[in-house]
Amino acid sequence: EVHLVESGGGLVQPGGSLRLSCVASGFTFADSAMTWLRQAPGRGLEWVATINRGSLPSYPPEVKGRFTISRDNAKNTLFLQLNSLEPEDAAMYYCVKGYADSEERGQGTQVTVSA
């Protein structure tokens, strides 16, 4: 059974940074692409970043240059470094096994951006 546990969310001021983590189990982590999605209140799921099994990252324009996705296959852990946070980045962030259309995701970690 796929199990994904996110952590690292919290309250940060605009311009601040956070590092999200996702510990994975129940599958061969190193063989899987991994993705971060987010969902703000009243909005649908939004793609944030993907890293393939070769550690090649991809981002939408909204976060490129501010967010960095990475992985540690030895620790079955996925990361998302969030820099230069804006109020529009506030959302629940989810770790996903596979790509953005996957339904295998964790419970999420909340990111709040406010002065």
Question: What's a quick, concise take on this entry?
Answer:
By secondary structure, the protein is mainly beta. It is about 0% helix and about 45% strand.
Q: Mind sketching the topology for me?
A:
Layout: E1 3-7, E2 10-12, E3 18-25, E4 34-39, E5 46-51, E6 57-58, E7 67-72, E8 77-82, E9 91-97, E10 109-113
Parallel strand pairs: 2-10
Antiparallel strand pairs: 1-3, 3-8, 4-5, 4-9, 5-6, 7-8, 9-10
Structural overview:
The chain contains no helices and ten strands. With 115 residues, the protein is an all-beta fold. Strands 2-10-9-4-5-6 form a six-stranded mixed sheet, with no helix packed on it. The radius of gyration is 13 Å and the shape is globular.
Tally of alpha and pi helices: 0
Mean pLDDT: 97
Largest sheet: 6 strands, mixed
What order do the strands of the largest sheet run in, or round the barrel if closed? 2-10-9-4-5-6
Look at the helices and sheets and give the structural class. mainly beta
Q: Please report the distance between the alpha carbons of the first and last residues.
A: 40 Å
- The 3D shape can be described as globular
Approximate helicity band: under 10%
Oligomer type: single chain
How many E strands? Answer: 10
Report the sheet-strand fraction: over 45%
Helix/strand order: EEEEEEEEEE
- Radius of gyration (CA) equals 13 Å
